[in-house]
Input
Amino acid sequence: MPSDATIHSHQTSVRPPRAVDSSRAPCTASYAGRVTKHQAEQQAGQKTEDRLEKAVCAAEQALIEFEIAVETFRVEVENFSRLHHQRLGPMYTRLDELDALIAEAVAERTGDREDIRHAREARALVMPMPGIEELFEMPLGSDGIWQPGNPENPAAPRRVRPGEEARRLYRELVRKVHPDLAQEEAEQRRRGEFIARVNEAYAQGDEETLRALAAEWEAAPPTVAAPPSKAEELYARLEWLAQRKETLAAVAAELEQSAIGQMLKLAPDDPDGLLNEIAEQLLAQVAEREQRLTELLRPAAD
Output
């Protein structure tokens, strides 16, 4: 599109400067008006792209925060499940064994066929009986008893919910390195591999490793920023972000509806306290059944 200076130069080259044809003035004004309109359209298009870029940026940040929430909840569900199995599994096993022993003692006393059948069914459900020390120290493996150092579970979590400092470090790292912040496929892959290490450290509540990962990321060479996106690319990005959010929402719903997720809802502020409460209840049940068994095995008075 020619500039005003070019138009003026063209006009002076075709007629003497002393003789201005007033009849052509409206045409010149109309042409200048078309240039202004075109510029206005360009400015409007630029404003649209600016708004789209802001919308994409806001959607990306919202998605990252949502992913942080989903991932932290997933870690709590997984840690609770593992600790529940590790700490409470032996108690459930002991309860099953005591139930079988009680049923067998009752059957021996009564000789009733129904009691004998019940005793056999109870015995069939029993895993190897753990000792009392295992109720507090020995986590379970696939065979029912797990010893320290068993490679089946080399890195059991220390608690259900990582500490406040670990959560702070994790959130700060994810907001910096999340793959959704990258446009190029290679950079997304690099960030994805890095965030997997971050997630693993967070699941263990490993503050030292999280700090080391933060330092490693800061020391890495900066990546070349992608060129400004066109409107079509921005629209496509918004659509992808919406689809990603739907996927995450489905994952979050599945976690919340799981058995462990439902248990965590009982104590959202202190899941570790809930685990301890369940352990106390199970120990009380163990004591109750042991007392019942002792009574059944006591010789009847003549």
Summary: Residues 1-33, 138-154 have pLDDT under 50 and may be disordered. Residues 162-226 form one domain. The chain has nine helices and no strands. The longest helix spans residues 25-110.
